[in-house]
Amino acid sequence: MHIGTQGWNYEAWVGPFFPVNTRPADYLSTYSRAFGSVEVDSTFYGVPAASTFKSWYERTPHEFVFSLKLPQEITHEQRLRDTLGVSELFYERARELRHKLGPILVQLGPDFDPSELPALVDFIDKVPSDIRFTVEFRHRGWMSEGVIALLRDRNIGLTMVDGRWIPRKMMIALAKRPTADFAYIRWMGANRDLIDYSRVQVDRSREVDAWIDAIDELPESVTDVYGYVANTFSGHSPSTARDIQYKLGQVPVDPERLGEQLSFF
Predict the structure, then answer these.
(1) Domain boundaries along the sequence of the chain
(2) Which CATH architecture has domain 2-257?
(3) Is this prediction's pTM over 0.85?
(4) 187 forms bridges with which residues in the sheet?
(5) Nearest Cα to 27, choosing from 47, 44, 45, 42?
């Protein structure tokens, strides 16, 4: 069960989550004392240098897991028709994370509709078998038996998103029919109006409880669950992520202990 947040580099977390006076250079290592996984948003905006991936690897515990967003150059600009070889470069550098590399999130825009099925099929045919992939659709037309079968045939996840694009009830229903041997959940929130990330501002307990029930009902074929909370879900994602950990039977790390020299490394 890999529960965490979407990103870690937030100055507003200093005080409410990170100990006071935590330096930005120490955000990741401090974060990794509280959570065992993170979804990296920065990879969406460009392919990091190999040295960046190596640094992430070295600054986190042995069992830590990074899930990476596929660069928007591939998903939004080239619309999965990667004629420039960006995807191969990204996979090559991402492998610097070794056993810490989790799923790669292929987030597609709402304007990427089912008319572009050939591009999706071609992309899926080319993904390397040594890396897990999960696809996030933001157009309801993709929620079809044919697409589910396509993903299941290649053990590619259908990303479950609690956001505004596809109704939560539909997402939770699809969670009971996994397309891969892992589940991937993103708690996004209905809008992006929340800009103060220092505290919880929206009570999402009912939504979280519905997702906990869905996770409890996952079939035994699902061996891993990756779940990441955005700040826009409730206002302060570390707090919500800890609530989810607690409800799943995990023991959250108290933020007050993050300043201690914990024996995780």
Answers:
(1) 2-257
(2) Alpha-Beta Barrel (3.20)
(3) yes
(4) 162, 229
(5) 42
